[in-house]
Amino acid sequence: MKTRVLLLSFALALSSPMTFAEEGSSDLCSDPGIAFAFFNGVQTTPVDAQQAKNEFIRLFGETSPAGETIKYEVLYNYSEGFEDFVETFEQRLKEQEGILEGRFELFFEALRGGGPWWDQMQRVTSSAAGVLVGLVEWYEAETLNNLTTLVGNPPTSANYAEHRARIENWTRKRSSALKAKCRALLFAK
Amino acid sequence: MRKTTIALALALLAAACSRAESETIEELEASGAVPKLDRTDSLTGTDADQNGVRDDIDAFIAREYSSEPERKAATQTAKALQKGLLVEEGDVGGAKATMREIARGIDCVYEKFPVGSLKSAAQVSRELEALTTNTKIRLLAHLRFSKTLDGTSWSSPGKGTCE
């Protein structure tokens, strides 16, 4: 697995364009070794991304088998329309006599299809399961719609100038850039 | 007439069940199975001890995480997440500075909740994010903060990020 990932990183390093200016400073700029660039998945927050990065550190460590330092960096992108989900979530919580109304702490668990707090709610309220199932089905459909929209109207290079600058910087420094596209099925329970 | 009586009975039963279930959720809160949270209208809620973390989140951290290093790591992260709610939309510099603090907090959580801990580091960081964003305005503020970070990057602070 690791070997394949490293090969992928090399392919990216060799194919990356080298036409962007360096942006900012980081010890990634001057330290040779492997740069592990993590692009977060759709509908995820910076907290999700940082957490995923740490899971990758646990999986791959901070030193390669060849003794090179592996440095990790998050390249964050926000999914347009993420905030629109909040309105629908609010409406869904008002269903079933409003038992769960206003409990926005359940939002992120719902996006993951459930969690410990939802489990507790379902244990004592028969209707919570129905609310969660409805939320998950709606969320999956909306995510698919958003992805379709994204493909039809992709972000411009200006949106991601910083990301491109970082990648260019790694390639210029002859680092290996290792790209992992999430949503972290590798470490999902 | 009979149909009306049955419908009325069912409606009353549904209302009674609803009330009973509501009470059961309150019992869950009282037992600590689900957190009992501040749902006031402000972004920052009540923070009587002014440590930068809402008092209900302080109480959750004290109850849920067993050791002092774990609680300190969680508090550090919660404080940074709370700051994120106050970043103005479009203030990329402010958002990046706050994100660095959040990243350091989460890295610290991963250090203090190693593999095999009672709660996983991932679960802890998810809980803290969910607690911080427990009302509509807080959740929307958190997503605005996320949106402001669109297109940015940050590196791992590495080890030694605990305060």
Indicate the mean pLDDT of chain B: 90
Count of discrete alpha- or pi-helical segments spanning 4 or more residues of chain A: 8
Overall strand count of chain A: 3
Structural class of chain A: mainly alpha
Q: What helical percentage do the residues of chain B reach?
A: 55-70%
Give the number of helices of chain B: 6
The ordered string of helix (H) and strand (E) elements of chain B is HHHHHHE
Poorly predicted runs of 5 or more residues of chain B: 15-19
Structural class of chain B: mainly alpha
Shape type of chain B: globular
Assembly classification: heterodimer
Number of strand segments of chain B? 1
Plain-language structure description:
The complex is a heterodimer of chains A (189) and B (163). Chain A has 189 residues and is mostly helical. Helix content of chain A is 51%, strand content 10%. Chain A has helices spanning 2-15, 27-30, 46-60, 84-93, 107-111, 116-124, 126-152, 161-172; strands at 34-39, 70-75, 176-181. A three-stranded parallel beta sheet of chain A has the order 2-1-3, with helices on both faces. Mean pLDDT of chain A is 76; it is low at 1-29 and 182-189. Chain B has 163 residues and is mainly alpha-helical. Chain B is globular, with a radius of gyration of 20 Å. The N and C termini of chain B lie far apart (71 Å). The model of chain B is unreliable at 15-19 (pLDDT under 50). Strand 2 of chain A pairs antiparallel with strand 1 (153-155) of chain B.
What is the compact description of this entry?
Chain A has 189 residues and is mainly alpha-helical. Chain A is 51% helix and 10% strand.
